[in-house]
User: Fold this.
Amino acid sequence: MYNGMRGNYMSIDYSQIKLVKKDEFRWEIPVFGPMLVPGVIYGDEDLINELEKDLKGGKEWNALVQIVNVACLPGIEKASLAMADVHPGYGFCIGGVGAFNMDDGVVSVAGVGFDINCGVRCLKVNLKKDDVVKHQQKLADMLYKNIPAGLGSKGKLKLSTKEIDDLLVAGARFAIDRGYGLEGDLEYIEENGSIAGADPATVSPTAKQRQFSEMGTLGSGNHYLEVQYVDKVFDDKAASVFGFETGDVVVSVHCGSRALGHQIGTDYLSVLERASKKYDIPIRERELVCAPIGSPEATRYIKAVNCGINCAFANRQMLAHLTRKTFCSTFNLKPAEVSTFYEIGHNTLKTEEHAVDGERKKLIVHRKGSTRAFGPGSKRVPERYRCVGQPVLVGGTMGTSSFILHGTEEGMRQTWGSAIHGAGRMLSRQQAKKRWRATEIIEELNKKGIIVRGHGYKGIAEEAPGAYKDVVQVVDVMHNAGIARKVVQMKPLIVIKG
Amino acid sequence: MALKKTVSAEVVPPEARREPMSYRYRDHQADIVIEARGSTVEDAFQEAARAMYDLMVDIDAVQARKTEEIECEAASIESLLPAWLNALLSKTGLTGLVFSEFKAQTITNDEQTYYLKAKVRGEKLNSARHNVKTEVKAATYAALKVEKCNASVFVQCLVDV
Assistant:
């Protein structure tokens, strides 16, 4: 009964992992053993040293091992990629990207995660920093009151099974049709707020029932709503196209598909476990259970993920509109004065066409804690931004900075148009709670003029800025590597946490 | 900032009413690894459940007012552990109940599948009384272990928070 890992889990000699510097911001793990492609990691000397230390120190869960394990999955194209915010995850590292061909590639729950389409909505508000500072406490109180957050919180919209089914296909459009938003929001969301190929029949009744009262909730952990202002402009032309000036107020909402996404992940873990054995797929770690693209199991999983993606779109649409209404009532603004700048997801799998060895190929791209970052000219980027490239919204740690970057042609060539999603954790939650107290963090941020309101204090300590890498350092790597280029940097005024 | 080597486990001091070291948490950069121990595999699974709910709320404050039944299955004894924990999370999601008492029947299996039935007891989540802590999204297959260790059974599982 207790045989440990059985079946088709194959061992690999991780002592053979070498890191070879290819250029100033890119390292490679050359192919060895059962790897099908190299590992490619974006970083600087410091970030790479930390990864190597974890490996040499025998750390049980380390990102380099996870990058190598993904490089062994069938049908992976070009490289097992890791962005500069890389840290250990489960199966895939966080910041991990893997693209698979349709002929012998696989899909994996680990490449998407349980918070399907976790991402960021960025709203642009027709206010300047000083306007918010004058009413900062009142705005913080109103947002804390109006945005449902934290474990056990309930949304304002209660849905039936039929309505959930409609939502899983319509995405953000569902929320707008029920009065949560403006028509103009849709164009500035990835996939226009609704991804095709979603089939509610692939989502379990349990997943739908769990979501009945969670629509329009923020969640907890590293989810947040931040009121920010543009502190620095790096690229005048891109900032002008995006519509930003110094002092402009923006709001970033970071959350995902809530319980429905979690349940889809757990439902399909067991489906793909059986599929891995059925199709005899060699995998290095149990969490990397997967199914061949084109198999019934993979097809169902993709359709279910698309439902999860649409659920997150709808969730963020509702939260965005609750935020909009709060600003409108606090500052006497018209709804159109709180517009959607852009919305991205960073836990997804998507079917995309990319150049592979000179020919266009359809691939399934898994981005786990990685943001899509399509370059200029891409038809999937809103027309207004197309000359610059897709906005890439990078959430900083609580109280530090966030960034807006843009995708590049170089990124399309090197990383399937993928970039970082945040700063990346350095310390565990346990370590963070030992080192910092929520009250100290709140006081420290207050001194910097930042108001923090949290529904749970432990979460604030776990999310201490010191627990994360330096977001400026991580952003600079991607900028200097030419993968995604800086446009503006934002600083927070108000942080609402679950 | 120098990173500490995190191979050794971070131990949460056990409550006086529990046997020492029945469960504890191990460091992982983004998430949390639950370790639990019991004299039988069912006992170890129960302790893992306690460990998970103790991440979410102050489990000592959760009273056993209502009983629910849990049934789950998986392709292996190892994956039965996350199946069990995820079935509990689903039950919490559907009912709003958090649990503090877990009574598992003997795990059974046929050629393809392992089965677990249990009765669990708890009450509706009350933010004021239960000291709400961390939301657990799901139990994963990462760091998964179900092992006999001398006279006891040791289980381990990473949960996504």
Summary: The beta strands of chain B are 23-27, 32-38, 66-74, 97-104, 108-109, 114-124, 138-139, 145-149, 152-160.
